[in-house]
Amino acid sequence: MSPRSKVRPTTVALVVVLLFGAVWFYAGTDGFTAYTTEQARLARLAKTQPSFPPDVTLEDSRGSSYSISEFAGRYVFITFFYSSCPTVCVELERNMEQVYDKLPRSLLDQDIVFLSISFDPDRDDPARLEKYRQFFDSDGEKWRMARVKDQAELDRLLDRFGVIVIPDDSGGFAHNSAFYLVDPAGTLVDVMDYEDADRAAEKVAGYLNKGGAGL
Amino acid sequence: MKQAAYGFALFVFLALPPVARFLESVMIMHMHMQMPLLVIAGYMMARYFQLWFPGFLAKWNGNGIPGIVLFSIVVMYWNLPRAMDESLELAGSELFKFVSLTFLAGLPLRDSWQKVGYACRSTVFIGYMAISVALGLLYTIAPVQLCNNYLLIEQITLGWGFLTTAICMAVYVVYRLMIRHSEYE
Question: What is the pLDDT of residues A5-50, one digit of tens each?
Protein backbone atom coordinates (compact mmCIF):
# COMPACT_ATOMS: atom_id res chain seq x y z
CA MET A 1 0.00 0.00 0.00
CA SER A 2 1.38 3.40 -0.86
CA PRO A 3 1.25 5.83 2.05
CA ARG A 4 0.52 8.91 -0.03
CA SER A 5 -3.02 10.13 0.26
CA LYS A 6 -4.55 11.08 -3.03
CA VAL A 7 -7.74 13.06 -3.64
CA ARG A 8 -10.10 10.96 -5.67
CA PRO A 9 -11.12 12.37 -9.07
CA THR A 10 -14.78 11.98 -8.18
CA THR A 11 -14.29 14.25 -5.18
CA VAL A 12 -12.66 16.85 -7.42
CA ALA A 13 -15.52 16.53 -9.88
CA LEU A 14 -18.07 16.92 -7.09
CA VAL A 15 -16.40 20.11 -5.85
CA VAL A 16 -16.32 21.49 -9.40
CA VAL A 17 -20.00 20.68 -9.87
CA LEU A 18 -20.97 22.30 -6.56
CA LEU A 19 -18.94 25.42 -7.36
CA PHE A 20 -20.56 25.62 -10.78
CA GLY A 21 -23.98 25.31 -9.16
CA ALA A 22 -23.23 27.97 -6.57
CA VAL A 23 -21.94 30.45 -9.15
CA TRP A 24 -24.86 29.72 -11.48
CA PHE A 25 -27.50 30.19 -8.77
CA TYR A 26 -25.72 33.29 -7.45
CA ALA A 27 -25.61 34.91 -10.88
CA GLY A 28 -29.12 33.76 -11.83
CA THR A 29 -30.76 35.19 -8.72
CA ASP A 30 -28.69 38.40 -8.36
CA GLY A 31 -26.89 37.05 -5.32
CA PHE A 32 -29.81 35.02 -3.90
CA THR A 33 -32.09 38.07 -3.76
CA ALA A 34 -34.41 37.77 -6.77
CA TYR A 35 -36.10 34.45 -7.49
CA THR A 36 -38.81 35.87 -9.71
CA THR A 37 -38.54 38.25 -12.64
CA GLU A 38 -40.66 40.75 -10.74
CA GLN A 39 -38.19 40.89 -7.83
CA ALA A 40 -35.36 41.34 -10.32
CA ARG A 41 -37.30 44.11 -12.09
CA LEU A 42 -37.92 46.04 -8.88
CA ALA A 43 -34.27 45.78 -7.88
CA ARG A 44 -33.20 46.99 -11.32
CA LEU A 45 -35.63 49.95 -11.23
CA ALA A 46 -34.36 50.96 -7.80
CA LYS A 47 -30.85 51.03 -9.22
CA THR A 48 -31.45 52.74 -12.57
CA GLN A 49 -34.13 55.23 -11.43
CA PRO A 50 -35.65 56.07 -14.80
CA SER A 51 -37.51 59.32 -15.33
CA PHE A 52 -40.80 60.17 -17.06
CA PRO A 53 -40.53 59.84 -20.82
CA PRO A 54 -41.15 63.21 -22.50
CA ASP A 55 -44.43 63.97 -24.26
CA VAL A 56 -46.89 61.70 -22.53
CA THR A 57 -50.36 63.19 -22.62
CA LEU A 58 -52.85 62.24 -19.95
CA GLU A 59 -56.60 62.58 -20.16
CA ASP A 60 -58.30 62.41 -16.79
CA SER A 61 -61.78 61.67 -15.47
CA ARG A 62 -62.78 65.31 -15.91
CA GLY A 63 -61.89 65.07 -19.59
CA SER A 64 -59.02 67.51 -19.40
CA SER A 65 -55.77 66.72 -21.17
CA TYR A 66 -52.30 67.71 -20.08
CA SER A 67 -48.73 66.55 -20.33
CA ILE A 68 -47.29 64.38 -17.60
CA SER A 69 -44.53 66.95 -17.25
CA GLU A 70 -47.09 69.23 -15.58
CA PHE A 71 -46.42 67.32 -12.40
CA ALA A 72 -42.84 68.61 -12.29
CA GLY A 73 -42.09 70.07 -8.89
CA ARG A 74 -44.41 67.66 -7.12
CA TYR A 75 -44.14 64.07 -5.96
CA VAL A 76 -46.37 61.72 -7.94
CA PHE A 77 -47.68 58.48 -6.46
CA ILE A 78 -48.64 56.23 -9.36
CA THR A 79 -50.44 52.97 -10.01
CA PHE A 80 -51.20 51.33 -13.35
CA PHE A 81 -54.61 49.70 -13.72
CA TYR A 82 -57.58 49.08 -16.03
CA SER A 83 -61.14 49.51 -14.87
CA SER A 84 -62.50 46.20 -16.23
CA CYS A 85 -59.98 44.31 -14.11
CA PRO A 86 -61.89 41.91 -11.87
CA THR A 87 -59.26 41.18 -9.24
CA VAL A 88 -55.85 42.68 -8.71
CA CYS A 89 -56.58 46.25 -9.77
CA VAL A 90 -59.42 46.58 -7.30
CA GLU A 91 -57.09 45.54 -4.51
CA LEU A 92 -54.36 47.77 -5.93
CA GLU A 93 -56.62 50.84 -5.97
CA ARG A 94 -58.15 49.92 -2.61
CA ASN A 95 -54.66 49.86 -1.13
CA MET A 96 -53.82 53.12 -2.88
CA GLU A 97 -56.86 54.61 -1.17
CA GLN A 98 -55.47 53.35 2.14
CA VAL A 99 -52.12 55.00 1.51
CA TYR A 100 -54.00 58.19 0.67
CA ASP A 101 -56.04 58.01 3.87
CA LYS A 102 -53.06 57.10 6.02
CA LEU A 103 -50.95 60.06 4.97
CA PRO A 104 -51.36 62.90 7.50
CA ARG A 105 -53.39 65.76 6.04
CA SER A 106 -50.54 68.18 6.54
CA LEU A 107 -48.35 66.05 4.27
CA LEU A 108 -51.10 65.44 1.75
CA ASP A 109 -51.50 69.19 1.33
CA GLN A 110 -47.86 69.36 0.43
CA ASP A 111 -46.75 68.77 -3.06
CA ILE A 112 -47.90 65.29 -3.90
CA VAL A 113 -50.40 64.03 -6.45
CA PHE A 114 -51.92 60.56 -6.58
CA LEU A 115 -52.29 59.30 -10.13
CA SER A 116 -53.97 56.11 -11.35
CA ILE A 117 -53.04 55.50 -14.97
CA SER A 118 -55.17 53.17 -17.08
CA PHE A 119 -53.42 51.01 -19.69
CA ASP A 120 -56.71 50.25 -21.39
CA PRO A 121 -57.38 53.56 -23.20
CA ASP A 122 -59.98 52.05 -25.54
CA ARG A 123 -62.45 51.26 -22.78
CA ASP A 124 -61.36 53.66 -20.06
CA ASP A 125 -62.68 56.92 -21.48
CA PRO A 126 -63.31 59.90 -19.19
CA ALA A 127 -66.89 58.75 -18.44
CA ARG A 128 -65.69 55.33 -17.35
CA LEU A 129 -62.84 56.86 -15.35
CA GLU A 130 -65.34 59.16 -13.66
CA LYS A 131 -67.33 56.13 -12.47
CA TYR A 132 -64.17 54.49 -11.23
CA ARG A 133 -63.20 57.70 -9.46
CA GLN A 134 -66.54 57.78 -7.63
CA PHE A 135 -66.17 54.13 -6.71
CA PHE A 136 -62.91 54.83 -4.95
CA ASP A 137 -64.11 58.17 -3.68
CA SER A 138 -61.11 60.07 -4.98
CA ASP A 139 -61.46 63.83 -5.39
CA GLY A 140 -60.24 63.89 -8.99
CA GLU A 141 -57.71 66.58 -8.18
CA LYS A 142 -55.38 65.36 -5.47
CA TRP A 143 -55.98 61.80 -6.67
CA ARG A 144 -56.58 61.64 -10.39
CA MET A 145 -57.61 58.80 -12.65
CA ALA A 146 -56.35 59.16 -16.19
CA ARG A 147 -55.62 57.34 -19.39
CA VAL A 148 -52.84 57.78 -21.91
CA LYS A 149 -54.83 57.97 -25.12
CA ASP A 150 -51.96 57.51 -27.51
CA GLN A 151 -50.86 53.87 -27.56
CA ALA A 152 -47.26 54.68 -28.56
CA GLU A 153 -46.94 57.15 -25.67
CA LEU A 154 -48.49 54.63 -23.30
CA ASP A 155 -46.09 51.90 -24.40
CA ARG A 156 -43.14 54.22 -23.85
CA LEU A 157 -44.28 54.99 -20.32
CA LEU A 158 -44.98 51.33 -19.45
CA ASP A 159 -41.67 50.27 -20.90
CA ARG A 160 -39.76 52.94 -19.00
CA PHE A 161 -41.30 51.85 -15.69
CA GLY A 162 -41.07 48.14 -16.45
CA VAL A 163 -44.82 47.55 -16.39
CA ILE A 164 -45.69 44.38 -18.29
CA VAL A 165 -49.19 44.17 -19.74
CA ILE A 166 -50.28 41.05 -21.63
CA PRO A 167 -53.78 40.87 -23.15
CA ASP A 168 -55.54 37.61 -22.26
CA ASP A 169 -58.25 35.69 -24.12
CA SER A 170 -61.21 37.21 -22.33
CA GLY A 171 -60.51 40.88 -23.06
CA GLY A 172 -58.56 41.43 -19.86
CA PHE A 173 -54.88 41.84 -19.15
CA ALA A 174 -52.26 40.06 -17.12
CA HIS A 175 -50.04 42.67 -15.54
CA ASN A 176 -47.66 43.27 -12.68
CA SER A 177 -48.62 45.71 -9.95
CA ALA A 178 -46.75 48.04 -7.65
CA PHE A 179 -46.79 51.54 -6.18
CA TYR A 180 -44.49 53.93 -8.03
CA LEU A 181 -43.19 57.15 -6.53
CA VAL A 182 -41.77 59.84 -8.80
CA ASP A 183 -39.93 62.76 -7.22
CA PRO A 184 -40.35 66.46 -8.10
CA ALA A 185 -37.56 66.18 -10.67
CA GLY A 186 -39.55 63.53 -12.56
CA THR A 187 -37.33 60.64 -11.49
CA LEU A 188 -38.73 57.33 -10.31
CA VAL A 189 -37.32 57.10 -6.81
CA ASP A 190 -39.19 54.15 -5.32
CA VAL A 191 -41.24 51.13 -6.30
CA MET A 192 -43.21 49.71 -3.40
CA ASP A 193 -45.10 46.54 -2.60
CA TYR A 194 -48.76 47.33 -3.29
CA GLU A 195 -49.92 44.79 -0.73
CA ASP A 196 -48.34 46.67 2.15
CA ALA A 197 -50.14 50.01 2.36
CA ASP A 198 -48.77 50.79 5.84
CA ARG A 199 -45.19 50.49 4.71
CA ALA A 200 -45.87 52.49 1.54
CA ALA A 201 -47.53 55.31 3.51
CA GLU A 202 -44.55 55.41 5.88
CA LYS A 203 -42.12 55.59 2.99
CA VAL A 204 -44.04 58.33 1.18
CA ALA A 205 -44.28 60.32 4.41
CA GLY A 206 -40.53 59.92 4.78
CA TYR A 207 -39.90 61.33 1.31
CA LEU A 208 -42.28 64.25 1.86
CA ASN A 209 -40.77 65.11 5.24
CA LYS A 210 -37.32 65.05 3.74
CA GLY A 211 -38.43 67.33 0.91
CA GLY A 212 -40.21 69.61 3.37
CA ALA A 213 -37.14 70.01 5.54
CA GLY A 214 -35.10 71.04 2.54
CA LEU A 215 -37.43 73.82 1.52
CA MET B 1 -26.95 3.17 -30.72
CA LYS B 2 -30.32 3.55 -32.37
CA GLN B 3 -31.65 5.01 -29.16
CA ALA B 4 -28.97 7.70 -29.14
CA ALA B 5 -29.96 8.68 -32.67
CA TYR B 6 -33.59 8.94 -31.59
CA GLY B 7 -32.46 11.09 -28.68
CA PHE B 8 -30.60 13.39 -31.04
CA ALA B 9 -33.62 13.57 -33.34
CA LEU B 10 -35.82 14.48 -30.37
CA PHE B 11 -33.39 17.21 -29.35
CA VAL B 12 -33.33 18.70 -32.85
CA PHE B 13 -37.13 18.49 -33.07
CA LEU B 14 -37.57 20.32 -29.75
CA ALA B 15 -35.12 22.98 -30.87
CA LEU B 16 -37.10 23.80 -34.04
CA PRO B 17 -38.34 27.35 -33.49
CA PRO B 18 -42.06 26.64 -34.13
CA VAL B 19 -41.99 23.63 -31.80
CA ALA B 20 -40.16 25.56 -29.11
CA ARG B 21 -42.56 28.51 -29.47
CA PHE B 22 -45.56 26.23 -29.24
CA LEU B 23 -44.38 24.34 -26.16
CA GLU B 24 -43.44 27.59 -24.44
CA SER B 25 -46.80 29.24 -25.15
CA VAL B 26 -48.43 27.34 -22.29
CA MET B 27 -46.79 27.34 -18.90
CA ILE B 28 -47.46 23.71 -18.01
CA MET B 29 -46.24 22.50 -21.41
CA HIS B 30 -43.10 24.57 -20.99
CA MET B 31 -42.30 23.08 -17.62
CA HIS B 32 -43.79 19.60 -17.78
CA MET B 33 -43.25 18.73 -21.43
CA GLN B 34 -40.43 20.70 -23.00
CA MET B 35 -38.07 20.57 -20.04
CA PRO B 36 -38.51 16.85 -19.23
CA LEU B 37 -38.30 15.97 -22.93
CA LEU B 38 -34.96 17.77 -23.12
CA VAL B 39 -33.74 15.74 -20.16
CA ILE B 40 -35.01 12.57 -21.85
CA ALA B 41 -33.24 13.52 -25.11
CA GLY B 42 -29.99 13.88 -23.17
CA TYR B 43 -30.67 10.62 -21.34
CA MET B 44 -31.09 8.80 -24.66
CA MET B 45 -27.98 10.37 -26.14
CA ALA B 46 -25.84 9.42 -23.17
CA ARG B 47 -24.62 6.25 -24.91
CA TYR B 48 -22.76 8.35 -27.48
CA PHE B 49 -20.74 10.02 -24.81
CA GLN B 50 -20.18 6.89 -22.76
CA LEU B 51 -18.64 5.31 -25.86
CA TRP B 52 -16.74 8.39 -27.02
CA PHE B 53 -15.28 9.36 -23.65
CA PRO B 54 -15.32 6.16 -21.62
CA GLY B 55 -12.20 7.18 -19.71
CA PHE B 56 -13.51 10.64 -18.85
CA LEU B 57 -16.79 9.48 -17.34
CA ALA B 58 -15.20 6.48 -15.61
CA LYS B 59 -12.60 8.70 -14.00
CA TRP B 60 -14.54 11.82 -13.05
CA ASN B 61 -17.93 10.25 -12.49
CA GLY B 62 -16.70 6.90 -11.19
CA ASN B 63 -19.13 6.66 -8.30
CA GLY B 64 -21.89 8.60 -10.06
CA ILE B 65 -22.20 11.20 -7.31
CA PRO B 66 -20.90 14.27 -9.24
CA GLY B 67 -23.24 13.45 -12.12
CA ILE B 68 -26.31 13.05 -9.96
CA VAL B 69 -25.53 16.30 -8.10
CA LEU B 70 -25.06 18.10 -11.41
CA PHE B 71 -28.42 16.74 -12.58
CA SER B 72 -30.11 17.94 -9.38
CA ILE B 73 -28.60 21.43 -9.60
CA VAL B 74 -29.64 21.91 -13.23
CA VAL B 75 -33.18 20.68 -12.61
CA MET B 76 -33.57 22.82 -9.51
CA TYR B 77 -32.38 25.91 -11.35
CA TRP B 78 -34.97 25.48 -14.09
CA ASN B 79 -37.66 25.19 -11.43
CA LEU B 80 -37.09 28.82 -10.42
CA PRO B 81 -39.92 31.00 -11.75
CA ARG B 82 -37.38 33.55 -12.87
CA ALA B 83 -35.38 31.02 -14.90
CA MET B 84 -38.49 30.14 -16.87
CA ASP B 85 -39.29 33.80 -17.55
CA GLU B 86 -35.78 34.63 -18.64
CA SER B 87 -35.61 31.76 -21.10
CA LEU B 88 -38.53 33.46 -22.87
CA GLU B 89 -36.97 36.90 -22.83
CA LEU B 90 -33.26 36.31 -23.35
CA ALA B 91 -31.93 34.29 -26.28
CA GLY B 92 -28.83 33.31 -24.30
CA SER B 93 -30.91 31.93 -21.48
CA GLU B 94 -33.04 29.95 -23.93
CA LEU B 95 -29.94 28.46 -25.51
CA PHE B 96 -28.53 27.57 -22.13
CA LYS B 97 -31.81 25.91 -21.16
CA PHE B 98 -31.55 23.53 -24.11
CA VAL B 99 -27.87 22.82 -23.54
CA SER B 100 -27.98 22.44 -19.76
CA LEU B 101 -31.12 20.30 -19.51
CA THR B 102 -29.93 17.97 -22.26
CA PHE B 103 -26.21 17.68 -21.66
CA LEU B 104 -25.84 18.68 -18.01
CA ALA B 105 -28.97 16.95 -16.68
CA GLY B 106 -30.18 14.12 -18.93
CA LEU B 107 -26.75 12.87 -19.87
CA PRO B 108 -25.18 12.73 -16.38
CA LEU B 109 -28.43 11.29 -14.99
CA ARG B 110 -28.03 8.18 -17.15
CA ASP B 111 -24.33 7.81 -16.52
CA SER B 112 -24.84 8.18 -12.78
CA TRP B 113 -28.08 6.28 -12.27
CA GLN B 114 -26.36 3.00 -13.16
CA LYS B 115 -23.50 3.73 -10.77
CA VAL B 116 -25.12 5.09 -7.64
CA GLY B 117 -26.63 2.86 -4.98
CA TYR B 118 -30.18 2.37 -3.78
CA ALA B 119 -29.85 5.02 -1.07
CA CYS B 120 -28.81 7.71 -3.52
CA ARG B 121 -31.53 6.80 -6.00
CA SER B 122 -34.13 6.93 -3.25
CA THR B 123 -32.84 10.30 -2.04
CA VAL B 124 -33.09 11.80 -5.53
CA PHE B 125 -36.54 10.32 -6.05
CA ILE B 126 -37.94 11.42 -2.69
CA GLY B 127 -36.22 14.80 -3.06
CA TYR B 128 -37.88 15.41 -6.37
CA MET B 129 -41.20 14.36 -4.92
CA ALA B 130 -40.77 16.85 -2.07
CA ILE B 131 -39.88 19.65 -4.49
CA SER B 132 -42.97 18.82 -6.56
CA VAL B 133 -45.18 19.09 -3.48
CA ALA B 134 -43.54 22.37 -2.44
CA LEU B 135 -43.78 23.94 -5.90
CA GLY B 136 -47.28 22.56 -6.37
CA LEU B 137 -48.44 24.22 -3.19
CA LEU B 138 -46.58 27.42 -4.02
CA TYR B 139 -48.13 27.69 -7.47
CA THR B 140 -51.66 26.78 -6.40
CA ILE B 141 -51.73 28.91 -3.24
CA ALA B 142 -49.57 31.93 -4.15
CA PRO B 143 -51.96 34.83 -4.72
CA VAL B 144 -49.47 36.70 -6.88
CA GLN B 145 -48.28 35.97 -10.34
CA LEU B 146 -44.79 34.51 -10.11
CA CYS B 147 -44.00 34.57 -13.81
CA ASN B 148 -44.48 37.77 -15.74
CA ASN B 149 -44.99 35.91 -19.00
CA TYR B 150 -47.83 33.66 -17.92
CA LEU B 151 -51.29 34.28 -16.51
CA LEU B 152 -52.26 33.41 -12.96
CA ILE B 153 -54.62 30.67 -14.15
CA GLU B 154 -51.76 28.94 -15.98
CA GLN B 155 -49.72 29.11 -12.82
CA ILE B 156 -52.48 27.34 -10.89
CA THR B 157 -52.73 24.70 -13.63
CA LEU B 158 -49.00 24.11 -13.35
CA GLY B 159 -49.33 23.85 -9.58
CA TRP B 160 -51.87 21.05 -9.99
CA GLY B 161 -49.53 19.44 -12.51
CA PHE B 162 -46.84 19.37 -9.85
CA LEU B 163 -49.19 18.00 -7.22
CA THR B 164 -50.44 15.19 -9.48
CA THR B 165 -46.84 14.36 -10.38
CA ALA B 166 -46.02 14.12 -6.70
CA ILE B 167 -49.09 11.92 -6.10
CA CYS B 168 -48.02 9.56 -8.90
CA MET B 169 -44.53 9.39 -7.42
CA ALA B 170 -45.96 8.66 -3.99
CA VAL B 171 -48.12 5.87 -5.42
CA TYR B 172 -45.01 4.39 -6.99
CA VAL B 173 -43.12 4.55 -3.68
CA VAL B 174 -45.96 2.77 -1.88
CA TYR B 175 -46.08 0.18 -4.64
CA ARG B 176 -42.34 -0.46 -4.33
CA LEU B 177 -42.56 -0.83 -0.59
CA MET B 178 -45.60 -3.10 -0.57
CA ILE B 179 -44.78 -5.49 -3.40
CA ARG B 180 -42.00 -8.03 -3.06
CA HIS B 181 -40.76 -8.32 -6.62
CA SER B 182 -38.94 -11.59 -6.06
CA GLU B 183 -42.25 -13.34 -5.54
CA TYR B 184 -43.27 -12.59 -9.10
CA GLU B 185 -40.05 -13.52 -10.83
Answer: 678 899 999 999 999 999 999 999 988 888 888 888 888 887 888 8
The reply to whether CATH 3.40.30.10 applies to domain A50-214 is yes
Contacts of B27 (CB under 8 A, 6+ apart): B84, B147, B150, B154, B155, B157, B158
B29/A contact by beta carbon, under 8 A: no
User: What residue ranges do the domains of chain B occupy?
Assistant: 2-184
Q: Does A155 touch chain B (CB under 8 A)?
A: no
- ipTM of the predicted structure? 0.86
Q: What is the pTM of this model?
A: 0.77
A39 neighbourhood in chain B, CB within 8 Å = 82
CB distance from A133 to chain B under 8 Å? Answer: no
Domain ranges of chain A: 50-214
Q: Do A10 and B77 touch (CB under 8 A)?
A: no
A-B C-beta contacts closer than 8 Å: 77
B70: enclosing H helix or E strand: helix B65-77
